[in-house]
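Task: sequence design from structure.
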C-alpha cells in the first residue's frame, strides 16, 4: 500500500521533527502538508502544534509514570530473599 506508513507512527517525534512541525505550521502550512513533509501521521502533527499553541513549548514532559513504592535498596533485599529461599511467599517477604 503506497499511502501507508509502516510502524513509523508509533515512535516518538524527535526534537528536530518537533521544530520542523512548529516552523512549517507557523509559516501557514496545512496539517496534512506538514505530516507529509515529516512523514508522520496528521494526529501527531496536530498534537505537537496544539501543545505549542497551548503551552508555548514543544518538549516532551518528563516524570510521568507511577511513583515508586519501594526503594532500590528494598528491591535488592527482596530479590536476595527470593533467591535464597524460592519457596518463600510474597506476604512472607
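Answer:
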Amino acid at each position: 500500500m503506497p499511502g501507508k506508513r509502516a510502524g513509523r507512527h508509533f515512535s516518538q517525534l524527535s526534537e528536530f521533527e518537533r521544530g520542523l512541525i512548529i516552523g512549517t505550521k507557523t509559516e501557514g502550512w496545512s496539517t496534512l502538508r506538514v505530516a507529509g513533509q515529516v512523514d508522520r501521521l496528521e494526529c501527531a502533527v496536530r498534537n505537537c502544534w496544539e501543545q505549542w499553541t497551548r503551552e508555548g513549548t514543544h518538549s516532551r514532559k518528563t516524570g510521568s509514570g507511577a511513583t515508586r513504592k519501594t526503594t532500590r535498596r528494598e528491591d535488592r533485599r527482596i530479590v536476595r530473599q527470593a533467591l535464597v529461599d524460592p519457596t518463600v511467599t510474597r506476604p512472607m517477604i
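The chain is about 50% helix and 0% strand.
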